[in-house]
Amino acid sequence: MKDEAFSNESIWEKECTLESNHSYLISSDSGKGKSTLLSYIYGLRADYSGSISIDEENQKNISIDSWSKLRTHKLSYLLQDLRLFNHLPVWDNLTLKNNLTNHKTASQIEEMLEEFGLLSKKSQLAGKLSLGQQQRVALIRCLLQPFKFLLLDEPFSNIDHTNIQIAKKLINQECKANNAGFILATLGHDYEFKNTTTIFL
Amino acid sequence: MKKAINKKQNIFTLAFSALGAILGFTLLLITLQLFTDVDTIFNNESDAIDSEYLVLKKHVSTLNTIGLSSNTAFDSEEIEEIKGQDFIKDIAPFKNATFEVMAVLGMEGGKFPTMKSLAFFETVPDQFIDVETNNWMWEKGAMQVPIILPNTYLDAYNFGIAQAAGTPQVSKGIIGAFSIKLEVSGNGKKTKYQGNVINFSDRINSILVPKSFLDFANLEYGSPSKQEIFRVIVEVTDANDPSLKKYIEDNGYETNSEQLRGGKVEQILRGFLNFHVLIGIIIILQSAFLFVLYSQILIQKSKYEIQLLLILGYKWKTITNQINKSFILVFMLVGLVSFLCFGAVKLWFNAWLLEEVGMEVTSLVSLNTLLFGIGFLLLFLFLTGFNISTKVKQLAKPNS
């Protein structure tokens, strides 16, 4: 890890290494590229100069199939626009991910829903939920897999204080269980996470 | 995952594409099957009119008549050349008489007119004769000679002479009751023989006698050195073979064109069928194009869902297979319905053939038709499958 990268200056055009047993906050105003950086890391976009390596392998050399493996075993991503299947019930949205990874049991998933107070919404179409509820469903979904890094793009933007605490608890819990870290994009708020490094854009 | 993607299916477009495919398929299957049936029908007909045997002769022109052109006999080189052609199975010359024959036809009792005419004798090897040849032998010294007459002679009598002269018609059965007196003359000799008509031939339009008699009589009354070959009989593998027809024309030979007419009808019919196959293929390709287009629209409409599945970590192959599955189902349905439609039309056609034309085609579907049908279904699957996998793979690549 190169300290200079994590000064108060922008990280663009600098070199840095993110360790998976540590957590990071990407902090900037709107439009500085937080989401862009996360989608670069997750391999959704490749319109950058320079290079990004995952486990020493240059991202641009990673095959499509290997990306699928990375996305089920090492990287999990909560997108800012949530990306739920609006025409499917909450439960189907969650099992679509869990069927791929077999990471949690049905009762574990129900417990998570319960914690967020969403168990009663299990059979409701995702598109019919409020934005805050959708955000919580999307958060649960990205915890239904093993990971080394959890990429969170403004995960609490539509959630009230109580639910933020529940979300933080769940996130910390899962990171610990996976011996993993998160990279959380925020507009400046640190949400009182402990032991995180802030990256400025 | 099925639920995630299939929501975007447009039933109307899919049904429209499927209908086009069914139409094209049914048409193609019917046409392919007709090819096989036409083969069967024409081969049966060929047997009936003996078109596997043809009599070849050279064209007789006015120049021949006034003696200004080369003669119309075949030499041994020409016969060897004909024999060497692929479509010729066997060949034999007509051996002709070099002596004079006067035939007197009459019947005891005077009910029938007596006819007297100059005649000629020829002979061909037994295997070229199309009728029973019991008693087809002559031994030196015998005064009775077996004869095979052309069927046309009997027809000419029954429908021509008998009508004009008001005499009764005769059947083949009572022809044995006729006596044919033969006056054979030449080399200053003259002998009377008794001719026995043993049968009538459809194939050979000539008066046939056994070879032993002809050889003897040529020696006795004629001059064997004058013997030339003016006609040959050939056995062919397929009288409708266009290359046979071309060979005959190119060499200036003539044959019974009636027998080759079947070939022309068949050629015209095959032309029509080829045209039908072409239309069937065009319709099929168009519906294949529709399916490809439809799959593209489906992917375009499901872009969000497919991308989301890829983001969640689904493999592009898994997604492709899921989309393909629904198409396989549609294609199987198209195949099934097409075969059913085809079967119904075929049954109707078979019944029609039997009733109106009197031909029995028992086969419902040939192996060729089946294989072609399955082949085209696989082509459909391949085309759409390839298109789908290419598009999904494109979506799986990071935007750059």
What is the string of SSEs of chain A from the N terminus onward? EHEEHEHHHEHEE
Helix content of chain A: 25-40%
Task: Note poorly predicted spans of chain A.
Answer: none
Shape of chain B: elongated
Poorly predicted regions of chain B are: 45-51
The CATH homologous superfamily of chain A is termed P-loop containing nucleotide triphosphate hydrolases
Secondary structure class of chain B reads alpha+beta
Helix content of chain B: 40-55%
Instruction: Name the chain pair whose interface involves the most residues.
Output: A-B, 27 and 21 residues
Outline of chain A, from the CA principal axes? Answer: globular
Kindly report the spatial arrangement of strands forming the biggest sheet of chain A: 4-5-6-1-7
What is the strand tally of chain B?
11
Determine Rg of chain B (CA atoms, Å).
35 Å
Order of helices and strands of chain B: HHEHHEEEEEEHEEHEHEHHHH
Quaternary state of the chains: heterodimer
Main sheet of chain A?
Answer: 5 strands, parallel
Q: In CATH terms, what is the architecture of chain A? A: 3-Layer(aba) Sandwich
The average pLDDT score of chain A comes to 91
CATH structural fold name of chain A: Rossmann fold
What does this protein structure show overall?
The complex is a heterodimer of chains A (201) and B (400). Chain A has helices at 34-41, 64-73, 90-101, 106-115, 131-142, 161-177; strands spanning 23-27, 53-54, 57-58, 75-78, 149-153, 181-186, 196-200. In chain A, α6 (161-177) links the parallel β5 and β6 (181-186). Chain A has one domain (3-46, 59-200): 3-Layer(aba) Sandwich (Rossmann fold), CATH 3.40.50. The mean pLDDT of chain A is 91. Chain A has 201 residues and is α/β, with parallel strands linked by helices. Helices cover 34% and strands 14% of the residues of chain A. Chain A has a five-stranded parallel β-sheet with strand order 4-5-6-1-7, sandwiched between helices. In chain A, strands 2-3 form a two-stranded antiparallel sheet. The two termini of chain A are 17 Å apart. Chain A has six helices and seven strands. Chain B is an alpha+beta fold and 400 residues long. Chain B folds into two domains: 2-47 and 263-396, no CATH class; 95-228, no CATH class. In chain B, 54% of the residues lie in helices and 16% in strands. In chain B, the strands form three sheets. Chain B has a five-stranded mixed β-sheet. In chain B, α2 (11-48) runs antiparallel to α11 (367-396). Chain B starts with a helix and ends with a helix. Classes of the chains: A alpha/beta (201), B alpha+beta (400).
